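@channel sequence for tomorrow's demo:
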Amino acid sequence: MKALIVSDNHGDGKILEDIQEKFANQVDVLIHCGDSELQNDSEAMANFKAVKGNNDWGLDYPAQLQLTVNGVKFLVIHGDHDRVNYSLTPLMLKAESLDEQVVCYGHTHQLAVSMESGILFINPGSISLPRGEYSRIGGTFAIVEVTEQQFIVDYYNRNCVPISELHFEFNRS
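C-alpha cells (generated this afternoon):
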C-alpha cells in the first residue's frame, strides 16, 4: 500500500495538479494535511482526502480524518490544535486512543518522520513555503509505502524527484 502525503501549499493549486499527474496512478491514496486554501471541489483538490488547516477559512474540510486504506489505519490532521510545534505527545495520545497506525500532520512547514509507540508520524513539510533544516529544497511531499514488515518513507521535491538523503525505513511492531 502506498500513500502520497502533502501539506501547506497555501493556494498553489498548480503544484498539486503536477503531483497528481505524476503519481495518482502509482499510489493508493492522496492525502492533504491542510492549509490548501483551495475549495475541496477544485481540480487541484478533487482527488485528495483532506483536512482543514488554520488558513482554510470558510472551506468545507473536516478537522480530522480517519481512513483505512488496504487495511492500514491513518489519522490525518493539520496539527494546529494538537500543539505539534512543541510536542507530538498530544497527537500520540490521540492516535493511540483511536488505534491508528499512521499519523499524517502538517502546520509546522517542516518535514518530520518518526516512529513512536509503534505508530508512524509523518509531516510532509510544506510543498510551497518550507521552513527549517530542509527549506533549501524548496518544498517537499512524501510517499509512504506500508508492507507487512516496514514503513518506507521517501520525500520528494517540487519537481517530483526523490531526495536520496530523505529515505527512511521503520520496522513495524
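heads up for whoever presents: The chain is about 10% helix and 35% strand.
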